[in-house]
Specification:
- The chain is mostly helical.
- The longest helix has 55 residues, at 74-128.
- A three-stranded parallel beta sheet has the order 2-1-3.
- It has six helices and three strands.
């Protein structure tokens, strides 16, 4: 009886199918993710321009303060110092709020992308009869002979071009960052 139970356990485990997928690759390379990154980048650029305008206003008024402070009365000097402090406070508040807003916007734009990728992986898993699908980026070990890589099938189902890679995306993003840094100087 014990031997029969052991054989049944081995037979049951032999029928189980496992799969893995590089979920990060799917999400980052989906066409929708490119669109979301462009939207976020545009919002960041606008925020950066607004921030720069505020900083320039502060610098101009501070420069005027330094040049004329010796000739002002105490009341004017105190008023100008208060004005400078107010501008600094606005800059700090703007910086904090814009970071929070950009983070929320990114989450808002990426949530449906994550959901779509997750639904596609689940559909592939169900169609393939897999009992578990692991994220290849967070598993310490995967035996490729016993686990099917669903990434290529999911890429195809999600409309990700064969020539798109995470390395290529990183190079694109670095080039964009360098171009923005050069434009700001």
């Amino acid at each position: 009886m014990i031997a029969a139970a052991a054989l049944m356990t081995v037979a049951a485990s032999a029928q189980q199918k496992f799969a893995h997928v590089n979920f990060n690759e799917l999400v980052q390379l989906m066409p929708e993710a490119y669109s979301a990154r462009e939207t976020i980048s545009a919002a960041q650029k606008e925020a950066s321009e607004a921030y720069q305008t505020m900083v320039e206003e502060f610098q101009t008024k501070y420069s005027q303060y330094q040049q004329k402070a010796a000739t002002w009365t105490a009341a004017i000097k105190e008023n100008k110092e208060k004005e400078l402090a107010d501008i600094q406070t606005r800059i700090q508040e703007f910086e904090q709020s814009v970071q929070q807003e950009l983070q929320q916007k990114q989450q808002q734009l990426m949530a449906p992308i994550y959901q779509k990728a997750n639904e596609q992986v689940q559909a592939l898993a169900k169609a393939g009869g897999y009992i578990y699908v692991f994220d290849a980026t967070s598993v310490l070990y995967i035996d490729a002979t016993q686990s099917k890589d669903l990434t290529p099938d999911a890429r195809k189902a999600l409309g990700i071009a064969d020539d798109k890679t995470l390395e290529g995306l990183q190079q694109e993003l670095q080039a964009q960052a360098q171009a923005q840094a050069g434009a700001q100087q």
